[in-house]
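Example 3.2
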Amino acid sequence: MKHEAEARRVLVVDDDHAVRDVLRRYLERSGYEVDLAEDGETALRLFAEREPDLVVLDLMLPGVGGLEVCRRVRDRGQVPVVMLTAQGEESDRVLGLEIGADDYVVKPFSPRELVLRVGSVLRRSRTAPAGARESLVDGALRLELEARRGTLNGVELALTGREFDLLAFLLRNPGRAFTRPELLEAVWGWNFGDHSTVTVHMRRLREKIEPDPARPDRISTVWGVGYRYDAEDS
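Structure, written as C-alpha coordinates:
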Protein backbone atom coordinates (compact mmCIF):
# COMPACT_ATOMS: atom_id res chain seq x y z
CA MET A 1 0.00 0.00 0.00
CA LYS A 2 1.31 3.44 -0.93
CA HIS A 3 1.54 6.30 1.55
CA GLU A 4 0.34 9.80 0.69
CA ALA A 5 3.88 11.14 1.01
CA GLU A 6 5.09 8.92 -1.80
CA ALA A 7 5.27 10.32 -5.33
CA ARG A 8 2.43 9.26 -7.57
CA ARG A 9 3.48 6.74 -10.21
CA VAL A 10 2.28 7.15 -13.81
CA LEU A 11 2.59 4.51 -16.53
CA VAL A 12 2.87 6.11 -19.99
CA VAL A 13 2.02 3.79 -22.88
CA ASP A 14 2.75 5.02 -26.42
CA ASP A 15 4.62 3.51 -29.35
CA ASP A 16 6.12 6.90 -30.29
CA HIS A 17 9.48 7.38 -28.55
CA ALA A 18 9.28 11.18 -28.83
CA VAL A 19 5.86 11.27 -27.15
CA ARG A 20 7.01 8.99 -24.35
CA ASP A 21 10.12 11.07 -23.74
CA VAL A 22 8.29 14.40 -23.69
CA LEU A 23 5.62 13.11 -21.32
CA ARG A 24 8.23 11.53 -19.06
CA ARG A 25 10.08 14.86 -18.73
CA TYR A 26 6.95 16.92 -18.09
CA LEU A 27 5.54 14.44 -15.58
CA GLU A 28 8.83 14.08 -13.70
CA ARG A 29 9.13 17.87 -13.48
CA SER A 30 5.72 17.85 -11.81
CA GLY A 31 6.90 15.35 -9.20
CA TYR A 32 5.60 12.07 -10.64
CA GLU A 33 7.49 8.82 -10.95
CA VAL A 34 7.15 7.55 -14.51
CA ASP A 35 7.32 4.14 -16.17
CA LEU A 36 7.30 3.84 -19.96
CA ALA A 37 5.92 1.17 -22.30
CA GLU A 38 5.97 1.11 -26.09
CA ASP A 39 3.43 -1.68 -26.61
CA GLY A 40 0.48 -3.35 -24.96
CA GLU A 41 2.32 -6.42 -23.69
CA THR A 42 4.95 -4.32 -21.93
CA ALA A 43 2.24 -2.06 -20.52
CA LEU A 44 0.36 -4.95 -18.93
CA ARG A 45 3.55 -6.41 -17.46
CA LEU A 46 4.60 -3.07 -15.95
CA PHE A 47 1.09 -2.47 -14.68
CA ALA A 48 1.21 -5.75 -12.75
CA GLU A 49 4.77 -5.20 -11.48
CA ARG A 50 4.79 -1.47 -10.67
CA GLU A 51 1.21 -0.79 -9.52
CA PRO A 52 0.89 2.69 -11.03
CA ASP A 53 -1.55 5.26 -9.67
CA LEU A 54 -2.63 6.23 -13.20
CA VAL A 55 -2.12 5.06 -16.78
CA VAL A 56 -1.69 7.38 -19.78
CA LEU A 57 -2.65 5.13 -22.69
CA ASP A 58 -2.44 5.61 -26.44
CA LEU A 59 -5.19 3.71 -28.24
CA MET A 60 -3.08 2.90 -31.31
CA LEU A 61 -0.55 0.32 -30.13
CA PRO A 62 1.22 -2.61 -31.82
CA GLY A 63 0.31 -6.07 -30.58
CA VAL A 64 -2.24 -5.82 -27.79
CA GLY A 65 -4.19 -2.67 -28.70
CA GLY A 66 -4.96 0.23 -26.41
CA LEU A 67 -8.64 -0.65 -26.02
CA GLU A 68 -7.75 -4.17 -24.90
CA VAL A 69 -5.13 -2.80 -22.48
CA CYS A 70 -7.76 -0.43 -21.07
CA ARG A 71 -10.21 -3.32 -20.68
CA ARG A 72 -7.68 -5.48 -18.81
CA VAL A 73 -6.58 -2.59 -16.58
CA ARG A 74 -10.20 -1.90 -15.70
CA ASP A 75 -10.78 -5.61 -14.97
CA ARG A 76 -7.97 -5.48 -12.40
CA GLY A 77 -9.26 -2.54 -10.38
CA GLN A 78 -10.02 1.16 -10.33
CA VAL A 79 -6.69 2.65 -11.44
CA PRO A 80 -7.57 5.74 -13.52
CA VAL A 81 -6.87 5.70 -17.26
CA VAL A 82 -6.31 8.80 -19.42
CA MET A 83 -6.53 7.90 -23.11
CA LEU A 84 -4.57 9.48 -25.95
CA THR A 85 -6.55 9.52 -29.20
CA ALA A 86 -5.90 10.89 -32.68
CA GLN A 87 -8.08 13.56 -34.23
CA GLY A 88 -11.17 12.01 -35.79
CA GLU A 89 -11.12 8.77 -33.74
CA GLU A 90 -14.41 9.56 -32.02
CA SER A 91 -15.73 6.00 -32.21
CA ASP A 92 -12.64 4.61 -30.48
CA ARG A 93 -12.78 7.41 -27.91
CA VAL A 94 -16.40 6.63 -27.08
CA LEU A 95 -15.61 2.91 -26.88
CA GLY A 96 -12.71 3.64 -24.54
CA LEU A 97 -15.00 5.63 -22.26
CA GLU A 98 -17.54 2.82 -22.33
CA ILE A 99 -14.84 0.34 -21.29
CA GLY A 100 -14.05 2.58 -18.34
CA ALA A 101 -11.39 5.18 -19.21
CA ASP A 102 -11.64 8.23 -16.96
CA ASP A 103 -10.52 10.94 -19.36
CA TYR A 104 -9.03 11.51 -22.81
CA VAL A 105 -6.70 13.93 -24.59
CA VAL A 106 -6.74 14.35 -28.37
CA LYS A 107 -3.45 14.38 -30.32
CA PRO A 108 -1.71 16.67 -31.02
CA PHE A 109 -1.87 17.88 -27.44
CA SER A 110 -0.03 20.18 -25.09
CA PRO A 111 2.11 18.21 -22.61
CA ARG A 112 1.20 20.78 -19.97
CA GLU A 113 -2.50 20.17 -20.59
CA LEU A 114 -2.00 16.43 -20.20
CA VAL A 115 -0.12 16.91 -16.90
CA LEU A 116 -3.01 19.07 -15.68
CA ARG A 117 -5.50 16.37 -16.71
CA VAL A 118 -3.45 13.74 -14.89
CA GLY A 119 -3.42 15.85 -11.74
CA SER A 120 -7.16 16.49 -11.97
CA VAL A 121 -8.01 12.80 -12.38
CA LEU A 122 -5.74 11.78 -9.50
CA ARG A 123 -7.19 14.42 -7.19
CA ARG A 124 -10.72 13.31 -7.94
CA SER A 125 -9.84 9.65 -7.49
CA ARG A 126 -7.98 10.12 -4.19
CA THR A 127 -9.29 13.24 -2.48
CA ALA A 128 -12.48 13.02 -0.48
CA PRO A 129 -14.73 16.11 -0.53
CA ALA A 130 -15.75 18.11 2.52
CA GLY A 131 -18.06 16.08 4.70
CA ALA A 132 -16.68 12.90 3.16
CA ARG A 133 -17.19 10.85 6.31
CA GLU A 134 -20.87 10.99 5.54
CA SER A 135 -22.63 8.72 3.07
CA LEU A 136 -25.07 9.54 0.30
CA VAL A 137 -28.06 7.22 0.44
CA ASP A 138 -31.08 6.78 -1.81
CA GLY A 139 -33.09 3.70 -0.97
CA ALA A 140 -30.88 0.65 -1.54
CA LEU A 141 -28.20 2.79 -3.23
CA ARG A 142 -25.36 3.98 -0.98
CA LEU A 143 -22.14 5.91 -1.63
CA GLU A 144 -19.47 5.99 1.06
CA LEU A 145 -17.56 9.15 0.17
CA GLU A 146 -14.36 8.66 2.15
CA ALA A 147 -13.93 5.07 0.99
CA ARG A 148 -15.16 5.98 -2.52
CA ARG A 149 -17.30 2.87 -2.42
CA GLY A 150 -20.78 2.37 -3.83
CA THR A 151 -23.25 -0.40 -3.05
CA LEU A 152 -26.70 -1.31 -4.33
CA ASN A 153 -28.78 -3.76 -2.29
CA GLY A 154 -25.62 -4.46 -0.29
CA VAL A 155 -23.63 -5.49 -3.37
CA GLU A 156 -20.57 -3.41 -4.24
CA LEU A 157 -20.74 -1.48 -7.52
CA ALA A 158 -17.76 -1.57 -9.89
CA LEU A 159 -17.60 2.20 -10.42
CA THR A 160 -14.75 4.01 -12.13
CA GLY A 161 -13.53 7.23 -10.55
CA ARG A 162 -15.54 9.42 -12.92
CA GLU A 163 -18.65 7.28 -12.51
CA PHE A 164 -18.38 7.63 -8.73
CA ASP A 165 -17.97 11.42 -8.98
CA LEU A 166 -20.89 11.73 -11.39
CA LEU A 167 -23.19 9.59 -9.26
CA ALA A 168 -22.21 11.50 -6.11
CA PHE A 169 -23.00 14.79 -7.84
CA LEU A 170 -26.39 13.52 -8.95
CA LEU A 171 -27.22 12.21 -5.47
CA ARG A 172 -26.38 15.62 -4.00
CA ASN A 173 -28.67 17.35 -6.50
CA PRO A 174 -31.81 15.24 -6.89
CA GLY A 175 -34.74 16.56 -8.91
CA ARG A 176 -32.71 19.15 -10.84
CA ALA A 177 -32.12 18.87 -14.58
CA PHE A 178 -28.55 19.49 -15.75
CA THR A 179 -27.30 20.07 -19.27
CA ARG A 180 -24.31 18.11 -20.54
CA PRO A 181 -22.06 21.21 -20.47
CA GLU A 182 -23.08 21.83 -16.84
CA LEU A 183 -22.20 18.26 -15.93
CA LEU A 184 -18.88 18.46 -17.79
CA GLU A 185 -17.93 21.54 -15.77
CA ALA A 186 -19.23 20.27 -12.42
CA VAL A 187 -17.84 16.72 -12.57
CA TRP A 188 -14.95 16.84 -15.04
CA GLY A 189 -13.88 20.41 -14.40
CA TRP A 190 -14.05 21.20 -18.13
CA ASN A 191 -15.67 24.33 -19.54
CA PHE A 192 -15.41 22.80 -23.01
CA GLY A 193 -15.22 19.29 -24.40
CA ASP A 194 -17.01 16.44 -26.12
CA HIS A 195 -20.53 16.13 -24.72
CA SER A 196 -20.59 12.43 -25.66
CA THR A 197 -18.35 11.91 -22.62
CA VAL A 198 -21.35 12.65 -20.40
CA THR A 199 -23.67 10.50 -22.53
CA VAL A 200 -21.37 7.49 -22.28
CA HIS A 201 -20.95 7.81 -18.51
CA MET A 202 -24.68 8.17 -17.99
CA ARG A 203 -25.25 5.01 -20.03
CA ARG A 204 -22.69 3.13 -17.93
CA LEU A 205 -24.24 4.35 -14.68
CA ARG A 206 -27.68 3.24 -15.80
CA GLU A 207 -26.31 -0.20 -16.60
CA LYS A 208 -24.97 -0.45 -13.05
CA ILE A 209 -27.77 1.04 -10.93
CA GLU A 210 -31.01 0.64 -12.92
CA PRO A 211 -33.04 -2.62 -12.93
CA ASP A 212 -33.90 -1.88 -16.58
CA PRO A 213 -31.38 0.57 -18.12
CA ALA A 214 -33.66 1.08 -21.13
CA ARG A 215 -36.40 2.33 -18.77
CA PRO A 216 -34.47 4.07 -16.00
CA ASP A 217 -36.12 4.93 -12.70
CA ARG A 218 -33.32 7.02 -11.22
CA ILE A 219 -31.46 8.76 -14.07
CA SER A 220 -34.01 10.37 -16.36
CA THR A 221 -33.34 11.97 -19.72
CA VAL A 222 -34.87 15.44 -19.92
CA TRP A 223 -35.38 15.95 -23.63
CA GLY A 224 -33.86 19.17 -24.94
CA VAL A 225 -31.99 19.70 -21.67
CA GLY A 226 -29.94 16.78 -20.35
CA TYR A 227 -30.38 14.56 -17.30
CA ARG A 228 -32.11 14.56 -13.93
CA TYR A 229 -31.69 12.27 -10.92
CA ASP A 230 -35.02 11.18 -9.44
CA ALA A 231 -34.46 10.09 -5.86
CA GLU A 232 -36.36 7.06 -4.62
CA ASP A 233 -36.75 8.64 -1.18
CA SER A 234 -38.13 11.98 -2.43
